[in-house]
Amino acid sequence: MASTVRLYRSVVRELNRSAIAPRETRNKVIASHFRKIFEDSLQGTKSDRFEKEARDAITFLRSQRVYKELLDRYNPLHDLTTEERIKATARRVGLDMPLTPEGEEDK
């Protein structure tokens, strides 16, 4: 029982750390589904497979969070549009993009 509670808390902790939206605006149904899954595992027979899959889910959530942090840190241009990326790259080498007249942008 203690290991299942520990696994549940680990899953909740990783979900909170990786969440983008504030806690008040998150979908409550998802949290209740996680809680129900873990409650069912406590009432049923303790399965080694369930614990392994829960640990795998925790590892996946943690890995995704760390991957996003590393991507943001070492590739700050990844979430920019093409035009913004070109301007940022030009600025990085000390250049500025030429201004284009408003009517000639798509030619």
Automatic annotation (TrEMBL):
<dbReference type="InterPro" id="IPR039196">
    <property type="entry name" value="Fmc1"/>
</dbReference>
<dbReference type="GO" id="GO:0005759">
    <property type="term" value="C:mitochondrial matrix"/>
</dbReference>
<protein>
    <recommendedName>
        <fullName>Complex 1 LYR protein</fullName>
    </recommendedName>
</protein>
<dbReference type="GO" id="GO:0033615">
    <property type="term" value="P:mitochondrial proton-transporting ATP synthase complex assembly"/>
</dbReference>
<dbReference type="Pfam" id="PF13233">
    <property type="entry name" value="Complex1_LYR_2"/>
</dbReference>
